[in-house]
Fold each of these.
Amino acid sequence: MKKMLVVAGLGAAVGYLFGTEQGRAKLARFTDRAKRMAGDPEVQQKVSDMAGQVKSNADKLPDPVSGVVKTAADQVQSKLDHPELR
């Protein structure tokens, strides 16, 4: 029953965001803010620093997990180094 209520609530939220003019306007404002924040050099530097820390600490993880974590950190770093890939 709880699961059905959660799904119904999410459906209503998605319907509001995409189905009403006010919802689309709020979604557009949110998207614009997110893009501005992602393009902020300070935010990009912090993300880059975190990716480096994750990659350096990945060696402490078991082998299969370590490889996946390093690959993910490399992908984040690559997207920061080449913004046209975003």
Note: The helical segments are 2-19, 21-39, 41-57, 63-81.
Amino acid sequence: MHGLVKTAVLLIAIASGSVWAYGGGGGGSSGCAEPKFFEPNPTGAVAALAEFAFVASDNTDSDTLTVEINGQTVQPVLERMRSGDWRVKAVPPQPLTEPGKIRISVKAKSRDGCWGFQPYAVEVKP
């Protein structure tokens, strides 16, 4: 009977030791919430891109939010929504009408200090 108890204790010690060796099973989370970007408009194919809009989560530090359209920084216009999220609009200097893919990059820090990045693609088709 004592041998069985010793074996059980040994197995528990080994099992718990291996859990500690892998970070305690914490799932790898750093505890810092990144900002989220969602509801892009437009999506898919358009005749021209005159404006791009999306929503940024409420934990977004609006002072750090940047939008690039085809590598060119565009000053975003932000509006606080009732939910606390941000409605963001980015307008290129001129409507983009040349056929092809347009790359839109959004980057910002959260209030926790974590960076979030979201690429989008819109295609201009005649």
Note: Confidence is low (pLDDT under 50) at residues 8-26.
Amino acid sequence: MSKKLRVSAESIPELRDFLAGADVDMGCRPVAVKRGDRYVTEVISDDDELARLGRRRAGGVRIEVLEEMPSAARRLRMVPSGNRFAGGVVPRGYGRKE
């Protein structure tokens, strides 16, 4: 199962070097934010890669599991199969309505 992780290090180069060899999803625009005296970013990783990250963690790098991410199949089961506009109610809010 995938997990959302918070990875932090004392410097940007240390964080970059650690994540360079990692098989993690950093999103389309990864960002490292300075929090206190550390640089922090969030990534998504599977259990096997999390174990590898834990083994190769060195220096001041910290890894914190934030949450477990449901699989794609599980997320699809959460979406209703009915037509939510069948009652004739027009969607409201931003966007283009035709």
Note: The chain is about 25% helix and 30% strand.
